[in-house]
Amino acid sequence: MEHTGTGFGTQVIHSGVTPGKDCRPLSMPIYQTSTFYFDTCEQGGRCFAGEEGGYYYSRMGNPTVQLLEEKIAALEGAEAAVATGSGMGAISSALWSIAGAGKHILADKTLYGCTFALLGHGMTRYGVEVTFIDTSDLKAVEENLRENTCAVYLETPANPTLKIADIQAVARIAHGYDPNIKVVVDNTFATPYLQRPLELGADMVVHSATKFLNGHGDALAGFVCGRRDLMDQVRMFGVKDMTGSVLGAQEAFLVLRGLKTFELRMMRHCENARKLADYLVTDPRVETVYFPGVPTHPGHETAKKQMRCFGPVMSIEIKGGKQAGMDFVDHLRMCRIAVSLGDAETLVQHAASMTHSAYSPEELKAAGIPEGLVRISVGLENAEDIIADVKQALDHVK
Ligand SMILES: *Cc1c(COP(=O)(O)O)cnc(C)c1O
């Protein structure tokens, strides 16, 4: 029994016993605590030095967050995973662990808008060189590697054009040039249900778990996954020293709950996306459907090779360009106009004015992002209702 003191205020703070091993909740409790206490200074010292297990401060480790990290590592086939407060927290913690002044990052030019801003406008302020290329063009990868290249960074499928890069081929080229180069893949769109980049030769996977992994649109979270020594670096240097982008226990609990239905949700998302794409390719008002499942998509064969199926996200270009695209979005009745993706609701947004507003018109052009591009994150509603809403919105486009 703990010594609880006799004063009222002291008892408010110290009375009661924390449940121990005899209490076995089915769902992981939310360990809502910043710090953890020790029996002695010596024990505290051993815990800090890593000589014995246990927790000491939630920025370095928390039981709720740790269970989630172990699950994500298992799903990605990684030795370890580090949870972060957002996808951008994961990306910045990973990249700051790898790069520094004088180093060079080779990145794809079609990226999540904030990642593009971090690489193009953020890291370059601190002496990191960044070259943007098209990583689906293997020759471009080969030609742009340099002696000081420390990382190759890409998304596949890429946001928002669903461009596909061949992870295995990119990793082979990068590691052939210099085995120390870290190939980092943002696996947010595919998720480990569809694609496991580490098995294809990537060194690190980053995630916005705000999207499909959580799946309920009620939390921000991110992950970095990879070899244990690399993840120790990300935790002890990237998160602890550089970004502090730690995941809270409440959010970890929400993602743990979301994950219980992850596979079922992904199956439904992908089935609905397939049906919507099948309809869209037959509608003469739609100019192009950007979906790896469409046989004319340039990444179709690579996607077939490295993904379980073609995923839950697509983009479309409507005849009539930018104005037609915006008219279409404005006339949707059930689907929501919102950025983000991976939620139960079908979310639709206009890339150039929303998620990719960090790109200048020239940069949009270079990245192959048409001005009228509309991105659709296909939700969990009934496919007939999604298709009916899209159809009636197309009827309204002048
Ligand atoms: C949303 C997203 C991010 C950023 O994640 P946050 O959780 O919003 O910080 C990064 N990459 C991709 C592909 C995304 O869709």
From TrEMBL:
Q: What is its EC number?
A: 4.4.1.11
Enzymatic reactions: L-methionine + H2O = methanethiol + 2-oxobutanoate + NH4(+)
SUPFAM superfamilies, A to Z: PLP-dependent transferases (SSF53383)
For the keyword Lyase, the answer is yes
Alphabetized, the UniProt keywords read:
Lyase, Pyridoxal phosphate
Q: Name one Pfam family in it.
A: Cys_Met_Meta_PP
Protein species of origin: Oscillibacter valericigenes
NCBIfam families found in the cross-reference section: met_gam_lyase (TIGR01328)
Q: Name one GO molecular function term.
A: methionine gamma-lyase activity
Q: Which domain of life is it from?
A: Bacteria
Named cofactor requirement(s) = pyridoxal 5'-phosphate
Q: Which family does it belong to?
A: Belongs to the trans-sulfuration enzymes family. L-methionine gamma-lyase subfamily.
Does the keyword section mention Transmembrane?
Answer: no
Specify the protein name. Answer: L-methionine gamma-lyase
The record's annotation in InterPro entries points to: Cys/Met-Metab_PyrdxlP-dep_enz, Cys_met_metab_PP, L-Met_gamma_lys, PyrdxlP-dep_Trfase, PyrdxlP-dep_Trfase_major, PyrdxlP-dep_Trfase_small
